[in-house]
Write a structure and sequence with these properties.
The chain has 411 residues and is mainly α. It has a domain of 177 residues: Hydroxylamine Oxidoreductase, Chain A, domain 2 (Up-down Bundle), CATH 1.20.850. It is built from 22 helices and no strands. Helix 2 crosses helix 3. The longest helix is centred in the C-terminal third of the chain and has 34 residues. The radius of gyration is 28 Å and the shape is globular. The termini are far apart.
Length: 411
Amino acid sequence: MKRVLLVLPLVLIGLLWAFGPAEKPASAGDEESTCVVCHEKHNPGVVAQWRASKHATSKKKTKPTCKTCHGTEHVGDDDVAKTKMPTAKTCKKCHIKQFKQFGRGKHALAELSVTAIPMFSKQPKSVQKMGCGSCHNVGKRWEDGSVGRCDACHTRHAFSAAEARRPEACETCHMGEDHSQYEMWRSSKHGVIHHLDPKSGRAPVCQDCHMQKGDHAVMTGWGFLGLRLPVPDETWQADIMTIVKAIGPWGRDEKGMEARVGAIKALKLARLDEETFQKARTKMIAACAKCHSSRFGKEHLELADEIIKETTHLMARAVRVVEKLYTDGILPLTEDGPKHPDLLLFYESPTEIEQELYKMFLFHRQKAFQGAIHANPDYMHWYGWAPMKSSFQKINKLDKELRAKKAEEKK
C-alpha cells in the first residue's frame, strides 16, 4: 500500500508533463478567453498595449472591453470583415466632456479645412491619404455624425492620457516646412529646459499652453493663417484684405469674396471678430502667468503681433506685384478668371513667380510669426523674416523679367 501511495504522485507528474497544463476555461464575456487569446497569436503587441491600458486594468464594473469598440459579430478567422471600428461616438459614451470640448476646437475642423484647399483635390488619392489627410483626419467626419479621431493623440490600444500629455504626441502633425511648431518649441528656451529637466515641470509643453486643464477645445488667437479682423490700423487691415483675396478657392470675383470670407469664418482659419481673438489672448496670457508676470506675457505677445503686422505688410506687397501681372495681361487668368493669385494652390501654382509667392506665404511667413509667438528668435528671423525678404526680391526680379519678355513679344 505504501508503495502504491509513493508511485501515484509520480504517475500524476508524468501525465501533467505529457499533456501540459489545461487552458484557462472560457466563460461568457471573458475577454482573456475570447478576443485576447486569439489575438495574442496574431497581434501580440496590440494585446500587450491593451493589457497595460487603464481600460483593461480599471476596477469599474462598466469598464470597456474589446467588444465595446469592435462589436460582437467578429468571432473568428473567417469573419474579420465584420469587425466594427470605433468612432468618436464610441469614445463619447464614457468621455462626454472631452467629446464636447473637442467639437468646439479647431482640430474638429481639420478634415474640412484641408478638403477646402484647392491643392488637395488635385493630388492622387494615395497622396491625399498619406500626406495632408493623414494628420487632418484628426477631424474625421464619421457616418454616425460624430467628429474626431481620438486615437490621433491617445494611440491604440494603450489610449494613454499620460502619453497624450507629452509634447512628442504633437510632433507628427505639428512639424515640417509649413508648420514647424514642434521644432520651434523644442529649440526655444522652453523646449531646452524641458529636455534638460523633464520631470520638474519648470518649462511648459504644448499642452500647458494649448490645452489648459486638459481642455480639448484647442484654439489660438491668430489662427493658422495669422490673419484677423478688425485690427487697429487701416493700412494693416487693407493688407490683410489683399491676402484674403488671394486665398481662394471660394470664388474669384467680388461676389465670390463673400462666400470666401464665410468659409474662412466657418473653418476658423482666421479670427473675424475682436471677442474671439481676445478670449484666446486672455487664455494664453493666463498660461504665461503661471511662470512669468502677466505683464511679461502680454508684452511678448504684443511684440509677436508686431511681427505679424510686418510680415503682413511685406506679403501684401508681394501679392500686389503678382496681381498687377494679371491685370496687365502678362500672367494668364486661371479657369475661374481670378484677378488675384491663388495662394492655396501651393505647389500646383502654374508659374515660377506664383510658386515663389506661395512659399513666401506658407513657409517663410508662417515661420516668422509662429517663431515669434513660440519665443524662438532663430525661427522668427533666419527661417522666417530673412527668407521672406529674399522671396520678395526674387518676385520683383521675376516680375521685371516677365514684363521684359512681354514687351519683346509685342515688338
